[in-house]
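Please fill in the sequence for the structure shown.

STRUCTURE ENCODING:
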């Protein structure tokens, strides 16, 4: 399909050039006919007469008017064809048949064509008036524009990528319809779009008037940090510009934002950065945007926050966004979770030792504020959300409390013991979570595959789609009355020797490829044998997870090629094409990757190795 449309674009360019050149030649011939041929010398001219008054200008030749009208009609048809072409490319990009970079390239070419067409019209008009200077200026302008348009390719690509997240209903429907022939995928529910629209309308009516006072401003969040050595750090994703939407390259490390802005107690020798956080507070972080495809420029969906609270507790937070606009709920939670933990009633509960009550209250407040902010800031929170993991380290490091919703895990490892503590994912493969979902009216959908594996998902009441892989989350409003709650599961871990204990918090981009014992061994070995800093350790864990993903994906592709070889040459050729078009770490593997237009198209699954890792010693001032 992409090749056919590319050929159409080339034909449009060629036809446009030929037609415009022919029109210009005809107009020039009509305006400047060749002088008549005189075989004999002209007779002598009579004496000059007094000059006659100037004659009024002759009206344009009817043939010239007809040609210009035909040219305008042709340009109008060209505009229609280009408009349809752009829409086709955008739709193909939305359902991931072609990449956003291809769409951006096509739009850049179309912009150049439109500019050339407009300039040609102006040139024709100026030729009629014999204004050569204006023609030269216009030619210079078109050269400058053609050279500068190339600079806009990345922002245009980002704008197209952003478009993939703008129309939730449209994209969801297109993605589901694109996979309607894959029986192991979610099928289109005829009532889904209508039900989703009805729920959105009811939600907006209910929230618009009552909950706007719950929305926190940047100033409100910033002003609570600073007193008594408190501070907060979070990931700061790219923001939309004045013209173009935000974009983020694959494997980009996320910038940090500090509250208060001067760093507060983080400020050391005029520097406030990750090195200060590691050396002074014993906390290190590694962040990396994933790779859904080599040309993916959408904003990474994970975020993090760390806070030193006025009451002496440290908070380590990881939020893994998902859905069509998943980076927004993750960012919103990273902004507001430290705020609510710092403020009453959570701060009062922490001072009184009621840690579970403080964490429950904080998660409830984050969810309520997120819902209100989504209405005020016009973000659709029905089909997007975020996991949330918050680890609270007590003053002195004698205990760690962890609250989780979703599948981002926390782990406690102690050097003297081989025992590790870790949280459990919230999925309906757990009997207790499945029972809770069913009791709330939600549906548990189980898909079985030829290799014996199973995929467990939650579907809303009275609907077969959409489906979600986790049973607790922030956001995801369409699932809230089906048991997908934002109430965290809370555990407490006692620490024997805080000076030799570490807390590790990661999103599922790490946990899917490295188990707890692997992480423990890699971490302690690097810290003790190699003498690495905490920052170097977490970056090493990130690289190991990426490499493991790459190896597993390569093995899966190898298995697919072997199966295709047994089916004959056509299947082997098709599988090899898919293999060549699939970049490392660009797609999910196993039964979750399906053949789709000679590529891999994951739908309804988290994409890319987009992970945030917190590694924190329970006592401070110990990092290298």
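FILLED IN BY: designer on duty
SEQUENCE:
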């Amino acid at each position: 399909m992409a090749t056919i449309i590319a050929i159409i674009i080339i034909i449009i360019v060629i036809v446009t050039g030929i037609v415009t050149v022919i029109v210009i030649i005809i107009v020039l011939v009509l305006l400047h006919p060749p002088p008549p041929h005189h075989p004999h010398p002209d007779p002598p001219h009579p004496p000059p007469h007094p000059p006659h008054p100037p004659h009024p200008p002759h009206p344009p030749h009817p043939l010239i008017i007809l040609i210009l009208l035909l040219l305008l009609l042709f340009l109008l048809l060209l505009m229609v064809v280009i408009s349809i072409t752009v829409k086709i490319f955008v739709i193909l990009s939305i359902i991931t048949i072609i990449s956003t970079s291809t769409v951006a390239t096509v739009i850049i070419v179309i912009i150049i064509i439109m500019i050339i067409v407009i300039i040609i019209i102006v040139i024709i008009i100026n030729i009629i008036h014999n204004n050569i200077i204006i023609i030269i200026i216009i030619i210079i302008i078109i050269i400058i524009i053609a050279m500068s348009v190339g600079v806009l390719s990345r922002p245009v690509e980002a704008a197209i990528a952003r478009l993939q997240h703008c129309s939730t209903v449209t994209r969801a429907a297109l993605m589901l319809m694109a996979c309607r022939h894959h029986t192991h995928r979610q099928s289109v529910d005829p009532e889904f779009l209508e039900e989703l629209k009805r729920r959105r309308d009811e939600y907006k009516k209910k929230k618009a008037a009552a909950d706007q006072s719950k929305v926190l401003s940047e100033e409100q969040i910033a002003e609570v940090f600073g007193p008594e050595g408190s501070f907060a750090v979070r990931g700061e994703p790219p923001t939309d510009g004045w013209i173009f939407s935000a974009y983020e390259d694959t494997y980009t490390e996320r910038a940090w934002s500090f509250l208060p802005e001067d760093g507060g107690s983080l400020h050391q020798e005029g520097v406030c950065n990750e090195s200060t956080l590691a050396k002074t507070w014993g906390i290190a972080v590694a962040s990396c945007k994933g790779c859904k495809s080599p040309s993916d420029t959408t904003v990474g969906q994970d975020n993090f926050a760390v806070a030193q609270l006025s009451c002496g507790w440290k908070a380590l937070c990881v939020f893994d966004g998902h859905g069509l606009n998943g980076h927004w709920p993750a960012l919103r939670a990273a902004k507001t979770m430290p705020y609510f933990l710092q403020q009453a009633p959570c701060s009062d509960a922490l001072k009184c030792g009621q840690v579970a009550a403080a964490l429950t209250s904080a998660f409830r407040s984050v969810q309520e504020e997120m819902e209100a902010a989504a209405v005020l800031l016009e973000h659709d929170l029905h089909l997007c959300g975020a996991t949330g993991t918050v680890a609270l380290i007590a003053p002195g490091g004698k205990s760690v409390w962890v609250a989780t919703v979703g599948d981002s895990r926390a782990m406690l490892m102690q050097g003297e013991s081989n025992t590790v503590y870790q949280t459990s994912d919230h999925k309906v493969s757990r009997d207790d979570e499945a029972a809770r979902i069913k009791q709330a009216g939600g549906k548990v959908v189980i898909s079985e595959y030829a290799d014996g594996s199973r995929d467990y998902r939650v579907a809303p009441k009275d609907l077969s789609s959409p489906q979600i892989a986790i049973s607790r989350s922030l956001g995801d409003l369409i699932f809230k009355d089906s048991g997908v709650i934002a109430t965290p599961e809370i555990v407490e871990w006692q620490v024997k020797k805080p000076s030799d204990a570490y807390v590790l918090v990661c999103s599922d981009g790490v946990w899917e490829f490295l188990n707890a014992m692997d992480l423990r061994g890699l971490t302690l070995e690097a810290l003790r044998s190699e003498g690495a800093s905490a920052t170097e350790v977490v970056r090493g864990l990130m690289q190991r997870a990426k490499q493991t993903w790459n190896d597993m994906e390569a093995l899966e592709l190898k298995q697919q090629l072997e199966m295709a070889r047994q089916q004959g040459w056509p299947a082997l050729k098709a599988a090899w094409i898919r293999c060549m078009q699939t970049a490392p770490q660009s797609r999910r593997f196993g039964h979750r990757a399906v053949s789709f237009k000679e590529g891999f198209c994951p739908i309804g699954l988290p994409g890319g190795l987009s992970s945030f890792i917190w590694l924190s010693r329970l006592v401070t001032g110990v990092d290298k």
